[in-house]
């Protein structure tokens, strides 16, 4: 199915390239548990010659000149939030190729003659992108940069002549919070600027309220045989909206329990009665409209896009009723699982997905309201094990749901330097057996960390047998940082970037090598980020240390000095120290002072 | 042990015996060795503190301050180190004349020029071109020469002059009888040539004298006098309008349109046709990179149909239009074509006189930034052809020249050579004033650290400034002034200096007091007690001596 899809996409892509320089499409796909996946895709092209002559038409100038200045041949930038719930939502959109781990991820192929030049260009690139996207990308320094060996492959076509000079850099900022200030520059890169077409639906309030969202920018050169090479920029936004949440009225956003008679109950439960209710899973067949979900209707189409390609597609079974605003042409696909809508250029477009009437709760009805999500080829989850402030462990559970197909993939971790892993503890074992299975791991690439200079890079090529689960574990040691190296709010912990899993498809490899230029469709998967808590000092420590050592020195010094300097006499031989004596001394002193004053007054008179 | 308390003047011997009743006993007298040992202990402690502790503390807490030649820097800033003098050499070609006659003419003209000139900074020096050279001097051979202008004297019917449009040559024709004789002390032809020369260089002189006068630090006697307030005003306007000097400029041509049409333009061809020739001529002074972009659905900051003067400043919608400056250090000049039928409400006739030079009814110049051109087009036109872009690009070209600070009169080669001289003077003054600021900064903030790289930059700046100052008026001066300015800026904006260490005094107290309090109090008290005991012993010794004498 996936291969078929990618083939379809490829042919579709080549058709697009020939037809138009700009293309946009929104695909809506209702998911179980009242979720809705909305995939926005925008693609613009420019010929490489125009790009090199600095003539920008659909390609954004602001990004273009950064790429040229930093000698970037291919660029991938991801801003993500939330977690893709693979258990209920199934396979990821675009096979996970257009998503990143939580935070910001950037990888790029730079053309440089030497390592130093490449490092310098990477620095330039991150700094420039940081300014363009209002993100802290400039914090991707040596400690957060890795050079993956097995995980990423160039998606574009690079003439073989300069491929030796191309260097891959990968940087990730798991702590970065993606928000509206990143969306605004993203929209500015589009030729239609979010003023027309599907981009009008993008609104920061809804996008960042989603359960999961990922913004992606991919720039790659595409060379089709017999045609001029083009530079393609693809911008993608995927988001999973909670229908309940987003249809909540704007003026009354606080969720309130519905009154008893509006509750949808699962009547099949034995304890169902007037006063007990088990909430039914009704979300999938809820009624919603585009304007409700996104907060506004779509404003026409972007006139630059190819008019032959329908801008909006909806993946629901044929049986479900869909109402659209006037003047919209509906194209139903042959398999009956999706339909697309051609929209009038200037008209507002809205779409209503009707409610599916069900008597009680019936699983077959649910199946009729949405398309069952595809099963992903691999499930992965990663978590910390162990306890204490000194050591810890990481456990990744990889599950292959397929009953007959083995999955081979590259598992990549880029860990911060203060997480020192013990490579000898790296073990993979099958669920059920307690002993390690060395046959699961084919190849390990390990680049150890250098304190304060670079992080650990660990790439593992391994396989999971059909319908089995593999536990990949390793231990690590937590190092103690210097006082100034702790970020603000250090007690929150340190984010550890998501592990990137690249699923290797043997057939794809076989197909692409003879052709030599076909773009490699990659299938990716990312685990969630982890929150590592390090031993955190008390930050008033320096002053405590100063005071404490001072006291100790004062005690030692004062005692020693007094012993050396004082003269010791018997108690009755020394000067008398008593209150009475102090009083008399004071009196004599004051008396003397008064006398002097009196004399002075007498003189004045 | 008997105690004495001293007040300011009177010493009251305490009646020791009063307390000495009952069981209180006098301690046995201290051994002399003990007393000496105690003194030694205290002295050695103090020696350690003063000879070891203090130097270490001093060493570890001082801030590194590289030595800067402050006096010299201030000299540069105040204009004492360099007197900007532009010795412009003008060669005279007079092949029709006898050498003797020509020499005489040159001498007389020089006299006339010196009489006319009131500004010492700008010298015109005439010299006779060597007669061996062919008279058909082309512009190319002139370039390598240091002369700024060549006067070509040709015999003709009447006295007339004309600037050559493509090379720095002033053609002067003269009637045969006007050649001055060997003995005459004045000549109509000489004064005519002098006036012509002066008017040719009048603008340059005015600009340079304006530059010198705005740098207030220059001593008054060096400042030129002949600048009228109006002229100064106009010059101030032009100077504020022009961009800072840079060897490279990025030119960004942007097409903005409110809707989705037009979505393509023939900018490449148009630039090549209408703008490239001028850019090519400017190459010796500036390099240019060009990029172009199209932005659709761009709403201007002002929506009204007729734009008045106030609207123009807010027309460019900086928040939404992607006009971010190009990366790579060089400044960006923006040229914007906005497709729309808005027009500019021109000011009334008398105001138009002063503004009319820059604001036509369709375009305006934004100082130090670029130009906006409003281009009306039919609604459904999807492509803008090169011919439509002719007028905008010609406007852009003339605006570019004024943004670069090119003088307005004279032939193009003369204007450009003037530009390079003005720029070198400008850069020289800028670098000098930066040096002055750096010197004043380091004097004003004694706690700021000055790394050695700053001292390095300063010395480099000064050596290049010296070179620039010595060669003013030649192409080399521009290079040296440029390097000097760059180095001065780098020294002034040194990162480790700008982010100076802020360590407030309360923190110092918090660090020093816990340590110095408990250690310092015993030390000081020990010293005081010892001093008191020493004084007492001396007095006793004196008293004993007296008693011995009396007995």
UniProtKB/TrEMBL annotation, chain A:
Signal peptide: 1-19
Highest taxon of the lineage: Eukaryota
Coiled-coil residues: none
InterPro entries cross-referenced by the UniProt entry: PIG-T (IPR007245)
Any Pfam family matching the protein: Gpi16
Example GO biological process: attachment of GPI anchor to protein
Gene Ontology, cellular component aspect: GPI-anchor transamidase complex
Spans traversing the lipid bilayer: 543-565
Keywords, in A-Z order: Membrane, Signal, Transmembrane, Transmembrane helix
PANTHER family (alphabetical): GPI TRANSAMIDASE COMPONENT PIG-T (PTHR12959:SF11), GPI TRANSAMIDASE COMPONENT PIG-T-RELATED (PTHR12959)
Listed name of the protein: Gpi16 subunit, GPI transamidase component
The species this protein was found in: Coniochaeta hoffmannii
Automatic annotation (TrEMBL), chain B:
Predominant location: endoplasmic reticulum
Keywords: Endoplasmic reticulum, Glycoprotein, GPI-anchor biosynthesis, Membrane, Transmembrane, Transmembrane helix
Residues passing through the membrane, by range: 40-58, 509-529
Subcellular location: Endoplasmic reticulum membrane
Topology with respect to the bilayer: Multi-pass membrane protein
Chain residue ranges for the region called Disordered: 1-32
Gene Ontology biological process terms, A to Z: attachment of GPI anchor to protein; GPI anchor biosynthetic process
Composition-biased stretches (Basic and acidic residues): 21-32
Cellular component terms per the entry's GO annotation: GPI-anchor transamidase complex
Pathway entry: Glycolipid biosynthesis; glycosylphosphatidylinositol-anchor biosynthesis
Keyword Secreted annotated: no
Protein biosynthesis keyword on record: no
Family: Belongs to the PIGS family.
Name this polypeptide is given: GPI transamidase component PIG-S
Source taxonomy: Eukaryota, Fungi, Dikarya, Ascomycota, Pezizomycotina
